[in-house]
Design a protein that fits this description.
This protein is mainly alpha-helical and about 240 residues long. The chain has one domain. Helices cover about 70% and strands about 0% of the residues. The chain contains 12 helices and no strands. It has helices spanning about 1-15, 25-40, 50-70, 75, 80-85, 90-115, 130-150, 155-170, 185-190, 190-205, 210-235, 240-244. Helix 3 runs antiparallel to helix 6, helix 3 (about 50-70) runs parallel beside helix 7 and helix 3 packs antiparallel against helix 8 (about 155-170). The longest helix has 27 residues, at about 90-115. It is globular, with a radius of gyration of 19 Å.
Length: about 240
């Protein structure tokens, strides 16, 4: 059922679209163009700035898009959930799988773009798979909690849309992390998005294998998020029908 709903979400997202999955890369490419026009000369210490920026943008786009879709999954499918005996968890989980599918498809043009900017493939590139999977679990746990809260408090969706731009600029995506003042480093280090994007860049931008400590942090954040999301979901689950 999850697979069928996920595939439906993918098809509906690009129904009657001429470019199809290319749209998954257009948003980060637009941001990249802005960064190249504004920031490329501001950070001369960053070698191959387009690759640096794009390797953060594509993961951010996955986070922003997937979290928004998962958060609204229960409310958007309220009519189905009221009329059919379908486990509500199907819809948030299907949205994450659809997001993973879109991300995987966007990696094809993404690879060509990186090659265009002079990025040479490395044997460590395969490590992006466990990083993305851990990130997907983290997104699912966080967004599942938000989706359960959103059933009762519709302001959650509006608040999340307002917080996303702030989170974007608080995360070193367009700028290198060493520019963050020492007194503010703790804000960056407690930001889970920074941990995933830094690991992603370690593989794709630097061509290095992340340290074991990094893998423990990524897996730990994913497990904590999943446990938290599951706890919030189970707590609010009995009142879903009355509040859809």
């Amino acid at each position: 059922m999850v697979r069928a709903v996920a595939w439906r979400n993918v098809r509906l997202r690009y129904k009657s679209s001429m470019l199809g999955f290319v749209w998954t890369l257009l948003n980060p490419l637009l941001f990249l163009l802005i960064f190249l026009l504004i920031f490329s000369e501001a950070f001369p210490q960053v070698e191959n700035y387009p690759v640096f920026a794009l390797s953060g943008l594509i993961l951010w786009s996955f986070f922003a898009t997937s979290s928004a879709h998962v958060m609204g999954a229960l409310v958007e499918n309220a009519a189905v959930l009221r009329s059919l005996a379908v486990p509500p968890l199907v819809f948030p989980l299907a949205q994450v799988l659809a997001g993973l599918f879109n991300l995987g498809m966007s990696f094809v043009p993404f690879a060509f773009i990186l090659h265009f900017f002079g990025r040479v493939p490395h044997g460590t590139d395969v490590l992006v798979i466990p990083i993305v999977l851990c990130f997907a679990v983290f997104i699912f746990g966080l967004s599942l909690a938000l989706s359960a809260l959103n059933v009762f408090f519709r302001d959650i969706g509006l608040l999340w849309n307002a917080l996303l731009p702030a989170m974007f600029y608080l995360t070193p995506i367009a700028y290198p992390s060493d520019l963050v003042p020492e007194r503010m480093r703790w804000v960056m280090e407690v930001n889970p998005l920074y941990q995933y994007i830094a690991a992603f860049r370690e593989v794709l931008y630097h061509g290095r294998i992340p340290q074991m400590e990094t893998w423990v942090i990524l897996a730990g954040l994913a497990c904590i998020s999943a446990a938290f999301g599951g706890m919030v979901y189970r707590f609010f689950r009995p009142g879903f029908i009355a509040n859809y």
